[in-house]
Amino acid sequence: MAQKPSIPKGTRDFSPAEVSKRNHIIQTIKKHFETYGFQPIETPSFENSETLLGKYGDEGDRLIFKILNSGDFISKVDDVTYSSKNSASLTPKISEKALRYDLTVPFARYVVMHQNEIDFPFKRYQIQPVWRADRPQKGRFREFYQCDADVVGADSLLQEVEFVQLYDAVFTDLGLKGTTIKINNRKILSGIAEVIGAKHLLVDFTVALDKLDKIGEEKVKAEMMEKGISEAAIAKAQPLFEMTGTASEQLEKLKSILADSEIGMLGVSELEEIIATADMIGLQSATLQLDVTLARGLNYYTGAIFEVAAPEGVQMGSIGGGGRYDDLTGIFGLKDVSGVGISFGLDRIYLVLEELNLFPESLDSSLDVLCLNFGKKEGRAALKLVSGLRKEGLRADLYPTDTKVQKQFKYADKRGVPYVILLGDQELTDGKFVVKNMKTGDQHDYQLDSLQAFAEKIKSDF
């Protein structure tokens, strides 16, 4: 018996309707990327392992999919390493490449390799799949698309403000009103780690804090203690967990807490400028909110960090995120190139739009017109008609066989085709064709030599 086919956990097949909806999101995001002056690039699906490893922290490294070397890779491993069963020492000998974990590190590699061809500041966007060996759950997959926009070579905080506007513009265009753009600054977190005496444990502090919305305050504190952060230090950080009020009120409280931390006060100053400028310009439908517990666990962030939450009432993790990284290209030898970028979570945005029924109804139809097939002679004439309609910009098709008319109508109904054309022997004799509106049942005659007028009528109905 043939084995039943399956796909790996955390991956998905997509139906035509699902692809149409995903393309709707991608095209909307792409439109705004280009409106804001970003240029497209693409990078390979896999990179050299050394490019990716060590850039995302220990937890990120564990989620990177490694690719086995081609050929008899095991024969090249010495007996001592092989018998040790130590994955850390074995992996580099059998795997030299890995699937990309995100688009930011490959972008940094791209900038370094192409620095002599790039005009700085360089604004790029990239829409491609990434892979993570994560535990699959709602809104979290092992293969998914990221839609990134980054600017490198400019340290102005106006870039952060522009990204806030970009988030707002995209989500407003998608009809997803009521999103919350959360903002914080890694310098503030560095300052807090400094004043509580845990400066040397900054990475452990931020990685644990990043899990606050997932596991809660008590478990975050327990994880901090497991990482060596003392109970006294955690107690000093308690105001962080209890911060409330407007952005201005929270920033004033932070000034008091971080008075003795130069880097912490710099973070406060940067947030004040970003929030004030964004407030001056105004947003269409999103809300900019200061969240001092926002950490984003990736190691490369150094300044402002962002995360976007879906409208209230929708149970979904973040649908976007990003931040400032002042020296990401430095890991590849190009020092002092400041960068900032954001990402849209395509798959989660899809789920939110689906839950809120925000996809346009027109996406349900992949055809504007279907021409029925009444036989060999009529089929040839119908194909000529369909070809003419395609030249007029309509999505038109001919049912391929002259099967029962009822079956052809049923097919049109299942495809969500709004208009069906009937071109039988009598219509050919009269030099016309009949158009049936599948929604209302109304029928109208059109002359075969008036395809342009018919096409314009159909387009005006959409």
From TrEMBL:
<feature type="domain" description="Aminoacyl-transfer RNA synthetases class-II family profile">
    <location>
        <begin position="1"/>
        <end position="400"/>
    </location>
</feature>
<dbReference type="InterPro" id="IPR004154">
    <property type="entry name" value="Anticodon-bd"/>
</dbReference>
<dbReference type="InterPro" id="IPR004516">
    <property type="entry name" value="HisRS/HisZ"/>
</dbReference>
<keyword id="KW-0030">Aminoacyl-tRNA synthetase</keyword>
<dbReference type="Pfam" id="PF13393">
    <property type="entry name" value="tRNA-synt_His"/>
</dbReference>
<comment type="similarity">
    <text>Belongs to the class-II aminoacyl-tRNA synthetase family.</text>
</comment>
<protein>
    <recommendedName>
        <fullName>Histidine--tRNA ligase</fullName>
        <ecNumber>6.1.1.21</ecNumber>
    </recommendedName>
</protein>
<dbReference type="InterPro" id="IPR015807">
    <property type="entry name" value="His-tRNA-ligase"/>
</dbReference>
<dbReference type="Pfam" id="PF03129">
    <property type="entry name" value="HGTP_anticodon"/>
</dbReference>
<dbReference type="InterPro" id="IPR045864">
    <property type="entry name" value="aa-tRNA-synth_II/BPL/LPL"/>
</dbReference>
<dbReference type="InterPro" id="IPR033656">
    <property type="entry name" value="HisRS_anticodon"/>
</dbReference>
<dbReference type="GO" id="GO:0004821">
    <property type="term" value="F:histidine-tRNA ligase activity"/>
</dbReference>
<keyword id="KW-0436">Ligase</keyword>
<comment type="subunit">
    <text>Homodimer.</text>
</comment>
<keyword id="KW-0067">ATP-binding</keyword>
<dbReference type="InterPro" id="IPR041715">
    <property type="entry name" value="HisRS-like_core"/>
</dbReference>
<keyword id="KW-0547">Nucleotide-binding</keyword>
<keyword id="KW-0963">Cytoplasm</keyword>
<dbReference type="InterPro" id="IPR036621">
    <property type="entry name" value="Anticodon-bd_dom_sf"/>
</dbReference>
<keyword id="KW-0648">Protein biosynthesis</keyword>
<dbReference type="InterPro" id="IPR006195">
    <property type="entry name" value="aa-tRNA-synth_II"/>
</dbReference>
